[in-house]
Design goal:
The protein has 409 residues and is mostly helical. It contains 15 helices and no strands.
């Protein structure tokens, strides 16, 4: 978050180090492969390794190409939602700027196991550079995240509920579906409770504490999302498209290496695995998704091969485009800074012109000519001020007696 005294040179994106980025991305992949291989070999499931290699050799190119298309549509949905929320806060962020922020943030989110903190930090940084103050930028980012993760929690509730009710076959226990669905439902209820509390107003003695301010900020964001849902803007579909098509990439990879299980199992495995991204460990998402799929009875070779292929598409597809988008985003920041500098230079000159206009003497108002004769005599008469005759002051009683005595003489 930028301070008010920072200029444009102190708040630019760092230079891109391609080699360091590749090394950072390669390390999680190697750790995932090594950990998965060690666990399988330690458990005596050597056949799972050969099964995965055999499936990789006969992977379907059609399903792989479909997965790439699905990932592109997922990123487009993210751009749509960001342009809606950020564009309502500042007119500087349109579709092109939203695409730049999305690509740079997607690379940071996928390469760093920080539960989306890389993308959130990029978005917040961009909002501040667009001219929003710290509070406004945080509120806009929170509205965007609430609208995005409302779909995330709703999908877990729907998929888990379908498995608990027996609408789809599964070989796992009911608790494996009920626990994530219950936790997601509790999160939705808590968020709606914050929004209801903000609508009712502050209640309690400690209404100005840090927890109360955080609750008000989250509740206000929930209310803003509810207003967005009631608006007929088609860009709201972006929140659903982002998660749906990214999960469809996993479904396509399962079909590319074998046969995908029931759709609620794929959805629950995808979203529960994404929740594992909160652990700051390399390969947490891949391990979480594969673990849930194996727990639902999917063969280990199929689960590991499909998850690694999904992560390859989801991680590496945006990275080359994101590297090209970083200079463009920096150029956008420079353009915004130039516009701010021009505005700051024009503001004092406009203030000087207005003050000089106030200091100039105003001309005397012209009086309208009266209705006189045709030669303008009436106008001259009306424009000449009237002079009232001065009446003499009344004589005092002493002066009157003196004047009477003179008359008698």
């Amino acid at each position: 978050m930028l301070g008010p005294d920072q200029n444009a040179s102190d708040s630019t994106l760092p230079a891109v180090q391609v080699r360091a980025l590749l090394r950072r991305a390669a390390l999680p992949a190697l750790l995932v492969l090594g950990t998965a291989g060690g666990l399988i070999l330690a458990g005596g499931h050597v056949s799972a390794v050969t099964d995965g290699l055999r499936r990789a050799a006969h992977v379907s190119g059609l399903w792989t190409g479909a997965g790439v298309v699905f990932e592109v549509v997922s990123l487009a949905g993210y751009v749509m939602l960001l342009s809606l929320v950020a564009g309502a806060a500042t007119p500087r962020i349109g579709r092109r700027e939203s695409a730049q922020i999305t690509l740079v943030g997607a690379a940071a989110t996928r390469l760093l196991p920080t539960a989306g903190a890389g993308g959130a930090a990029t978005t917040l940084f961009s909002l501040r550079r667009a001219g929003l103050r710290a509070g406004e930028a945080a509120r806009t980012l929170l509205v965007f995240l609430v609208s995005l993760y409302a779909v995330f929690l709703s999908a877990i509730v729907l998929a888990g509920g379908a498995l608990v009710l027996g609408l789809a076959r599964s070989h796992a226990t009911v608790a494996l579906s009920a626990v994530p669905a219950g936790a997601a439902l509790a999160g939705i209820v808590a968020a709606l409770g914050f929004g209801l509390a903000v609508r009712r107003g502050p209640v309690g003695v400690r209404a100005h504490s840090r927890r109360a301010r955080t609750a008000r900020l989250l509740g206000g964001a929930v209310l803003d999302v509810c207003r967005l849902v009631r608006s007929p803007d088609i860009r709201l579909i972006g929140a659903v498209a982002y998660w749906a098509f990214d999960a469809t990439v996993l479904w396509a990879m399962l079909n590319a290496f074998g046969r995908a299980p029931a759709l609620p199992i794929v959805v629950l495995a995808y979203f529960v695995g994404q929740a594992a991204n909160t652990l700051p460990l390399p390969g947490s998402v891949s391990g979480g998704i594969a673990g849930v799929l194996i727990a639902f009875g999917l063969p280990a070779g199929l689960a590991l091969a499909a998850v690694l292929a999904y992560r390859t598409i989801a991680v590496w597809l945006p990275v080359p485009v994101a590297l090209a988008a970083i200079p463009r985003l920096r150029a956008t920041f420079a353009r915004w800074s130039a516009e701010d500098a021009t505005h700051d230079e024009a503001a004092p000159s406009a203030a000087n012109v207005s003050s000089a206009a106030r200091e100039q003497p105003r001309p005397a108002p012209c009086r309208r000519a009266g209705r006189g004769s045709a030669d303008g005599a009436g106008a001259h008469k009306e424009s000449t001020p009237r002079i009232r005759p001065v009446r003499p002051a009344p004589a005092s009683p002493t002066s009157r007696r003196a004047r009477g005595s003179e008359l008698r003489r």
